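User: I'm new to structure prediction. If I give you an amino acid sequence, what do you actually give back? Let's try with this one:
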Amino acid sequence: MKNTNATYLVPASVEDALAAAKANGESFAYLAGGTDLMVHRQQENNDAACLIDLSALPGFDKIEMSDSKLLIGAGVTLHGLAASELVCQKFPLLVEAALSIALPVIRKSATIAGNLLVENRCSFFNQSEFWREAIGLCLKCGGDVCIATGGKKACYSVFVSDLVPALICYDAVVHFAGSDGAHSMPLEAMYSGIGLNPLHLPAGSLITQVEVPVKNEVRIWFQKLRPRKSVDFTNLTLALSFESGSGRLKVALSGVDMGPVVFETSEISEAFVKSVSKKCRMVENLFYPRAYRKKMVEVYLRQGLRAVGAELL
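Assistant: Good question. You get back a string of structure tokens that encode the predicted 3D arrangement of the chain. For your 313 residues, that looks like this:
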């Protein structure tokens, strides 16, 4: 049932936010832009009894840069990221990724951390409660079967962040705070690839900022597949970076698996191109058919390799 009487808190510090989360056990949700969370509450996919608004946290919406790294506050909006001169000059792939998401009005509210933590999607889950009950509940909402596959062991809901592939290609690091202090990890390490529990973050943890190292000799590329060039979530996002000096290629994808799919190689061959598509565990649970999305992985990868000047061996 929809929770219409949720407690609403606005902590003034990270410590206060963590304390509020701990006090409410598992029945809380952090709220930043709310563009994903509030839709899930309307669809009755989220009924947390406490909403913890993070907008008042110091430095939550700041972008800072030194000679060696860019620091992006977790509460920076997608619009703020794309409009930043610092980001535009040094990290054009992040700008392209941010502008590919949703509509301008949504990007004014949606935050960086929100996109990193966007709920996995599936055409059998992202529906009203009435619709889900009519077709039968899936693993992700309390049922005993994955409707997309008919299996009972794994949920194949899809990871759909567009910023994550771009940030991974820049070797981004995520900083977060928990009950035992501050921590950091490579961004790709934050994801489990498990549909029902897609994050490796400890319970109650709070993302504080994203760190992106500055690299001058990197060529980058980004492409996204979805029915419309606004509103719709991705059916396939592919980003890649190529360091011409070392020959290092990094490829990151979303919309193709339960978590981001990442490859790193200096042996760019036909076998490598084929292996990327094979590793993507797609099923029939997004707008475009599985076979088409599989084919487009290879198409996008070849386009990207040509664009950055990475020749196949």
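You can read the tokens as a compact description of the fold. Here is one thing that stands out. Residues 63-115+158-308 form a domain with the Uridine Diphospho-n-acetylenolpyruvylglucosamine Reductase; domain 3 fold (CATH 3.30.465.10).
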